[in-house]
Amino acid sequence: MKNTVVTILSIVAFVGGFLALFLSGPVEKKTPVTNQAIQQTNIKQNLESKTDEQLAVTVTVTPVDISPVLPEWKFNIVMNNHEIELNQDLVKNTILVDNEGKEYKPLRWEGAEPDGHHREGVLIFKAITPNPKSIELKISGIKEVVRSFIWQLN
Fold first, then answer.
1. Which of 56, 77, 106, 153 is least surrounded by Cβ atoms within 10 Å, i.e. has the fewest?
2. Residue 131: is it exposed, middle or buried by C-beta count within 10 angstroms (0-12/13-18/19+)?
3. SS (H, E, C) 33-58
4. Which region holds residue 80: left if phi is over 0, alpha if psi is between -120 and 50, else beta?
5. Global pTM value
């Protein structure tokens, strides 16, 4: 009788252990995060602001998020003057040009509405892939001048 109880308890323990392992699901293999992986996902171009001062209007453009891993590229734009209303549609009047001459239109503008003498916001483009060697942002329609801002990329 003792042997039967020990055998039954052994079987119950074995089945219980098997069920516990089976129900816990597969073991997920985690890939260790390396320094290189962190650097690749955090790559951002640290590009300087560029300023264009023509015909009493100052336009400063700063690339904010330019990275080959981001789906969108963002440019902060600040415009100042004391002569005209800054009511231009920047989505219609701006293009981004890569080093091969391909032109890209902005997706949207997030910022101040077209009005007044001071205006600031972010112009957003779809990311260019593969990453170009250089980019040029061209803004037209502000006092009949095309303003050009060029950056060299890594």
1. 56
2. middle
3. CCHHHHHHHCCCCCCCCEEEEECCEE
4. beta
5. 0.69
> How far is Cα 29 from Cα 138, in angstroms, rounded to an integer?
48
Place of tokens 């260019």: 128
Amino acid at 85: E
Residues 6 or more apart whose CB falls under 8 angstroms from that of 136 comprise: 96, 97, 148, 149, 150, 151
User: What is the residue extent of each domain of the chain?
Assistant: 2-28, 45-152
The CATH architecture to which 45-152 belongs is Sandwich (2.60)
pLDDT tens-digit map of 85-123: 788 899 999 999 999 999 999 999 998 887 778 889 999
